[in-house]
Amino acid sequence: MTITGDGSSTFENCLITMADPQDCRLTAVIFADPGTVMPGKPRPAVVPPGPSLSFERCFVCGSGDLVWCRASRPFRLKAQDTLAVLSGSVLVVDAGKYDTADAKAEVEFRRVTAAVGGHLLLLSPASPEDLAGIVPVSWAPDGCLFTSLAGGPSAGALIHIDGGKAGEATLAQKIPWKAGRNAYSFPEFIDQQPADAKMMRPEPYKWKAWKDFTGETESRSLDMVKFSNVPENLALARPDSFTLPGLEDFGAPTKTLPVPPKER
To answer: What are the backbone dihedrals phi and psi of residue 148, each rounded to the nearest 5 degrees, phi first?
Structure first.
């Protein structure tokens, strides 16, 4: 699904599966690049707060990403009581040309479980310094469970910056994080990979640096967790496989989510 302009969409009690990518990039929802228009038509102006998208009591699974913002700009993304089991990332943001000083995107998650092979947030800035072209993405997650499906050295970071790097002050400005109470199972929390191989890769944020960055004093860092009965084809996953003993206060209430048929 593609949301254009300042459009909005709401998913409630939905089951969304992405299977058989056949070498294509699959994404549940795309925020279209506002600069991409048909020949002869004027380029539309983007006025804050931009497009909006919400998920409530949804189960999204399969090969791909949840949301892809093809050109960074203001938007609103909300999710509540939702489970995302994906080979890719939850939110992917590519560089844009939106330059209003007070612009920002807003992400609000409540009781969300994200079990991903990629990242919670993947940023692709326009230049190697200071995250150029990225509108600040303000996060407010609470009661969430964020885990990597990849184990060992292949596990990605919670937040990955592809092709750029920034200092602590810029990260705080571009990824403001409102402290909540969440549980994480990622080996690294912020990882930056400069486009130029000659540029030194910044030290990744581990748990202590992440707590200092976010102020999440009541959150938990978990060892790499292993869910039970997770199929190799994530499009065949079922909600009841993504509960963890002792962590009932974190993540989506899986018993209330849409259940896919056992045979598809």
So the answer is: -90, 135
